[in-house]
Amino acid sequence: MSDNRQMAALSREIAAQERRLGELAGALAEMKHILGPLLGRYRREVLRYHQELVETQRAIADRRLMMGDRDARAAGDAKTALSSLIESEGYASVQEQFERVWKGKRPVRPEDVWEQANLPPAQEEIKALYAEVAAAAHPALAESPQDYARRVQIFSRANRAYIERNRPALGAIAATCRGDPRLPVVVDEGQIRRMRGRSAALEQLIVRLEGQTYDLRHGDVAKVMAYAQAAEKQGIDLIEQLGSELRRELARAAEELDQLESRNGE
Dihedral of CA 178/183/187/191: which sign? Predict the structure, then answer.
């Protein structure tokens, strides 16, 4: 294939990838806006303790196995209040309170989060402008720490304008991201190599964003958010309860691990 034909094919491929990047980045911006502080609290107050607890439980299982306990729970069987909630149709760790809220009702679904959202759809022109900014300034495509910091500033402004459906603001941001169209494009092996690298980087980012959007829309995070939003309407702070229970579980697990390590050192 000639250099010109390769360039044309790569240009079409990159254009399609950039449109997909805009779709996914826009969906994530909307999701994070809808979930708001609740998602931040989940990550700070729940997820961090869940992850630490799982690691501690695995360390306990490994220690017991080393001590000859064949009944030690396998590392893959680690359980926490969060995993119990995700795997069940109710918040079993505070069963009495949860049953008072949910008895006789259908299970909460991840889709409940988005069906109750009240965000107007974006017009096609706004989507196109946002995709242009995402392609030019997404932080994940940065090539240096300085470039990353610059992109974060630009992209945070673009996200805000997109959520507000502010076409003039988004158009102004997109204009600052555009290169000089008068510059000639030299078709050579170096340019083709750079375009292939660009396509590969976009594909990797798209895969990451697809995973994130799926988890927020249908996965474990969405399920917890749906439970938390529904519980909030009943005056129950599910995030606080989950965090408290995880911290208690972690304290017990840490104490057990210390005891096992002390016994092993004797």
Answer: negative
Rounded (5°) CA angle 110-115-118: 130
Q: How many other β-carbons are positioned within 10 Å of the β-carbon of residue 114?
A: 18
CA angle (116 as vertex; 114, 117 as ends), nearest 5 = 65
Q: Averaged over 21-40, what is the pLDDT?
A: 91
Integer Cα distance of 127 and 122 in angstroms = 6
- With 0.70 as the threshold, say if the pTM is over it: yes
What distance in Å separates the CA atoms of residue 69 and residue 76, rounded to the nearest whole number? Answer: 16
Q: Do 30 and 163 meet the contact criterion of CB atoms below 8 Å apart?
A: yes
Those residues whose C-beta lies under 8 Å from the C-beta of residue 43, and which sit 6 or more positions away, are none
Q: What is the pLDDT of residue 1?
A: 59
Q: What is the rounded distance in angstroms from the CA atom of residue 57 to the CA atom of residue 249? A: 10
- pLDDT at residue number 24: 96
Task: Please state, in angstroms and rounded to a whole number, the distance separating the CA atoms of residues 54 and 45.
Answer: 15
d(CA 80, CA 78): 7
- Residue 36's contacts (CB-CB under 8 Å, 6 or more residues apart) are none
pLDDT digits (tens, 9 = 90+) for 170-210: 999 999 988 655 555 666 788 888 999 999 999 999 999 99
What whole-number distance in Å separates Cα of residue 260 and Cα of residue 59? 10
Q: How many CB atoms lie within 10 A of CB 191?
A: 15
